[in-house]
Amino acid sequence: MTRIAIIGAGMAGLTAARHLLDAGAEVTVFDKSRGVGGRLATRRSDVGAFDHGAPLVQGDGAGFAEAMDGLASAERHGDGWRGLPGMSGLLKPWLAGAIHVPGCRIVRIEKRVLVDETDARHGPFDAVIVAVPAPQALDLTGQDALAQVVMDPVWTVLAAWDGAGAEDPDPVAPLDKILLQRGPGFRWIAHARAEWSRANLERTKADIAAELLTSLVRALGQVEAPIHLDAHRWRYARVARPLGAPFLDCGDGVLAGGDWALGPDAGHAFASGRAMAREIASRTLSAADQVG
Ligand SMILES: Cc1cc2nc3c(=O)[nH]c(=O)nc-3n(C[C@H](O)[C@H](O)[C@H](O)COP(=O)(O)OP(=O)(O)OC[C@H]3O[C@@H](n4cnc5c(N)ncnc54)[C@H](O)[C@@H]3O)c2cc1C
């Protein structure tokens, strides 16, 4: 059986995994995180969950709407879809049948063998898909073309209050977006502007949480202290300048892709993942098993 390794359990990696599993390959998915979803993320807390990454997934590329509508873990919301019960649950069904290796950071690829940070070796595989943000893919593959991709950072503040604030708050600088978490309670997620996030990238979480809270409090008109406050740094949040091709062929059976190949939305990651699966299937699987 053809053995494929996928590094990264986000939209791109799991799209590729699902297509290759359906085509009959043995698929092993490695991710440095314990969960799945990548930037489709949900953080649990004493006051409830926060979808602190993408609030929904959007895309108008071929097959994306059908794929989302086919997921029992997806619900339509406005011009996109969100995960059930949270964003990190959206893509879990696509892992069915794969070998999942969570909490495993890959640091090197040597002739289709993956080496993790404990120096353990995995493989060799027939092909490898690198589905991680472009700067991390550059570290793993050494492909100079990845250096031209630009990904903007985003600092995110997560806060909760006992009582409601303004219903439809306007963001106060440096905030760009303020979102009320669905479900009971008053949990808010606010994303800072990219340029502010870049200028403040290396500050501590506590410091950022305190500073962004002042803008959030003004926007919401809150007078009480929050019952929960946290911050999250997305070092590579949104693609500002994509590669302009669905994936990069790194040679020796290694392909690299992700949203950064095509654009800023999860639908771009889907298109990249599907293109990589098709390419690998055409090289390694029998004609009968080609990815549709
Ligand atoms: C704040 C924010 C708001 C957003 N808003 C929207 C929106 O409104 N609409 C929309 O469509 N999109 C939105 N997005 C973008 C969307 O989340 C991404 O386009 C999409 O999730 C990218 O998927 P991906 O698979 O390419 O990468 P990722 O989701 O980043 O997945 C990469 C995975 O690789 C893993 N990884 C990295 N390095 C290694 C390693 N060395 N070894 C093992 N594992 C590794 C990571 O842990 C991660 O799970 C938003 C993103 C953010 C952060």
UniProtKB/TrEMBL annotation:
Gene3D superfamilies: 3.90.660.10, FAD/NAD(P)-binding domain. Coiled coil: none annotated. InterPro entries: FAD/NAD-bd_sf (IPR036188). It holds the Pfam family NAD_binding_8. It comes from the Bacteria. PANTHER family: FAD/NAD(P)-BINDING OXIDOREDUCTASE FAMILY PROTEIN, FAD_NAD(P)-BINDING OXIDOREDUCTASE FAMILY PROTEIN. This is NAD(P)-binding protein. It comes from Palleronia pontilimi.
